[in-house]
Amino acid sequence: LEEVIALAKAHALDITVAVDRSGEAPAPAILSAATDGKHDLMILGVSRRIGEQLFFGKLATKLLAEAPCSVLLVSS
User: Which of 21, 53, 60, 71 has the most CB atoms in a 10 Å sphere around its CB?
Assistant: First the structure.
């Protein structure tokens, strides 16, 4: 996160980093925060799941389908 913040600041971009500790299920909490904050980009760290089809998990799939903004998936 520190690298992302530094990169955004170097390009004079506003960035908000949020960590949810509400105990709510992840997908609704993330979607709610994206909608309430009127964000235009969501960046999500993912890991590819084993299988013939490209799949990054249920959370990534739900966010890609329902996010009110662009979603960037980052995989190492």
Answer: 60
**CA–CA separation, 54 and 33 (whole Å):** 27
Distances (CA, A) of 74 to 4, 22, 36, 48: 12, 24, 23, 10
pTM for the model stands at 0.73
Identify any residues that bridge with 2 across adjacent strands, giving them in sequence order. Answer: none
Token digits of residue 41: 């980009």
Rounded to whole angstroms, how far apart are CA atoms 4 and 7? 5
Provide the mean pLDDT of the chain: 89
